[in-house]
Amino acid sequence: MPEFIAADDDGHMNAPSDLLAAARSGDPAAFEQLISPFRGELQAHCYRMLGSLQDAEDVVQDSLLRAWRNVGGLDERGFVRAWLYKIATNRCLSALERRARRELPVDLAPGTPATEVNWLEPYPDRSPETASGWAASPESIFLSRESIELAFIAALVTRWADAWQTGDVEAIVAMLTRDARYSMPPLPEWYHGHADIRAFLLDGPLQSQWRFLPTTANGQLAFGTYLWDRPSGRYVSGGLDVLTIRGEQVAEITAFLTVDLTRFGLPRHLEP
Fold first, then answer.
1. What is the pTM of this model?
2. What confidence score (pLDDT) does residue 267 get?
3. What distance in Å separates the CA atoms of residue 202 and residue 191, rounded to the nearest whole number?
4. Distance (Å, rounded) from C-alpha 74 to C-alpha 60?
5. What sign for the dihedral angle of Cα 117, 118, 120, 122?
6. Exposed, middle or buried by CB within 10 Å (0-12, 13-18, 19+), for 173?
7. Amino acid 136: pLDDT
8. In whole angstroms, what is the distance from residue 259 CA to residue 77 CA?
9. In Å, how far are 6, 7, 28, 60, 154 from 80, measured between CA atoms?
């Protein structure tokens, strides 16, 4: 566990003077101990700016490398968190200058070529750091809903999974708001309202057999979806469905089709 780093009266995170001195003198172990409490929240910060988990991970790695190269110039007061955020924010802004903002299909103007779009990606609420026992950072807490809030919709979780697994389109539609939206990045198509979504489900997804496992992503209820694959004789990953809840109904479904489900604490496939 990294050494405790205290906050001063202004909320800055002050590093212990001996740890700071060792890091500034070029001790890699001291530097790692200095920055390790902030990895998770830096990744969450970069994700919110970039909309891509992979891009966020790359920028964090680049930022920490730059921090290591310049640690000798770190303020003697040891405001590590603010220093790291400044570096990471600048790297994110540079990355954004090199490409378009990430979008969802429902955000695009009609006729926008899908090849020109950087698609928004989901963010796992449980990072490898928190899963391995590190304390949750303020940023990761911000991304996650309170467990009691998720418990409030626990009945919806069972009903939603059952409806999909039995192919009950009317049960699915009944759980949607009247203005619900359904999109499937990286596909540009999206659907709006009960009639539109019902027709799409009957003509497409509900022609197949599914299994759903609940998780969370972006601080929202989500399901890992598994599609029956006859050649392999098991259920294979169909993507991650992230649900936006309004009251006790589903206002939006974003089905991310190209996602590594293991990042969300789910298996890659399911046996029958």
1. 0.60
2. 95
3. 13
4. 18
5. positive
6. middle
7. 46
8. 42
9. 11, 10, 15, 15, 40
The counts of H helices and E strands in the chain are 11, 11
* 8 A C-beta contact, residue 84 and residue 23: no
Whole-Å CA distances, 226 to 23, 218, 232, 257: 47, 20, 13, 11
Q: Indicate the angle between helix axes 53-69 and 39-50, nearest 10 degrees.
A: 130
- Buried/exposed 126-158: b ≥16 CB within 10 Å, e otherwise: bbebbeeebebbebbeebbbeeeebeebeebbe
pLDDT value of residue 185: 86
Q: How far is CA 112 from the centre of its chain?
A: 25
Please report the pLDDT score of residue 12 as a whole number.
45
Which of 255, 258, 272, 241 has the alpha carbon at shortest distance from 189?
255
Q: How far apart are CA 254 and CA 234, in angstroms?
A: 24
Helix axis angle for 28-35 and 80-97, nearest 10°, is 80
Identify the segments of the chain with pLDDT beneath 50: 1-13, 115-117, 127-148
* 235 strand-pairing partners: 228, 270
Could you tell me if 254 and 205 are in contact, meaning their C-beta atoms sit under 8 angstroms apart? no
Q: Which two tokens stand for residue 156?
A: 């919806």
CA proximity to 34, closest of 86, 66, 71: 71
Instruction: Sort strands 176-183 and 118-119 into parallel, antiparallel or unpaired.
Output: unpaired
pLDDT value of residue 171? 97
Q: Which two tokens stand for residue 34?
A: 């200095």
Report pLDDT for 141.
45
